[in-house]
Design brief:
alpha+beta, five-stranded antiparallel beta sheet, five-stranded mixed beta barrel
């Protein structure tokens, strides 16, 4: 799964890389070194491909009468979205790019899990494949825009750490995912090339979602680490 990401690039880099304007919400959001679902995600939707905004992380289907009565998944298995009552409509009509510069996964047994940071070797920002939704109550108030990140089988870099990985899109795949037809979109939901990714251990301070510091990006020597137990790491 993917339950913790990061985005700490300069706003000008984000604008240039994705050729978008950024909302006030994005400019107040970046940098984020330890993003958990409560923070939301910087997202570019197919309905507004020229602007990056912050959407709520945890998908609320548009057909839900009450979002508290349905699951609000932060991830969706790419293999099942075409047949899912939760995601089928969004796959056809509401795709998005979720922007990040890395993400975290945990390896090992519960209580002793070691966090790893996964990044592109060139440290450039990239896009996850996402689905989004606009949920509006019958009263017409409190419109919620929500998002989920798709996951797939791990590549050789991720396989020793976790049995799933987020769908990372290569730059040449982003348009097909965002605005292509369903067949084109499904065709880019593959495993990211392993030769451009790096995974390395980081401090267990990342386990606390309230910890926000550039030090979380630093590689550590596992043998020298002690202290904070895992109490909120992703499973």
């Amino acid at each position: 799964m993917c339950g913790r990401t990061s985005l700490a690039v300069d706003i000008s880099v984000l604008r240039q890389r994705f050729d978008v304007a950024t909302t006030d919400a994005v400019e107040a959001y970046v940098p984020k070194y330890n993003i958990d679902p409560s923070d939301g995600l910087v997202t570019i939707t197919n309905e507004n491909p020229d602007t990056a905004d912050v959407l709520e992380w945890g998908f609320v289907p548009e057909w839900a009468d009450d979002p508290d009565d349905v699951p609000n998944p932060i991830n969706a298995r790419a293999e099942g979205v075409q047949d899912s009552g939760m995601f089928r409509s969004a796959l056809k009509n509401k795709r998005c790019l979720v922007i990040a510069d890395g993400f975290y996964e945990w390896q090992g047994a519960r209580g002793r899990k070691q966090p790893y940071r996964i990044v592109r070797e060139d440290r450039e920002p990239f896009a996850f494949a996402g689905l989004w939704s606009q949920w509006e109550p019958a009263s017409g108030n409190s419109l919620r825009e929500t998002v989920t990140i798709l996951t797939t089988e791990p590549n050789a870099v991720l396989e020793p750490i976790h049995d799933r990985m987020p769908v990372m899109l290569e730059p040449t795949e982003e348009t097909a995912w965002l605005t292509g037809d369903t067949t084109d979109a499904m065709g880019v939901l593959d495993t990211y090339p392993e030769d451009v990714l790096e995974a390395y251990p980081v401090s267990k301070q990342v386990n606390n979602p309230d910890t926000e510091t550039p030090d979380l990006y630093e590689q550590i020597d596992i043998g020298e680490q002690s202290g904070l137990d895992e109490f909120s790491a992703s499973d």
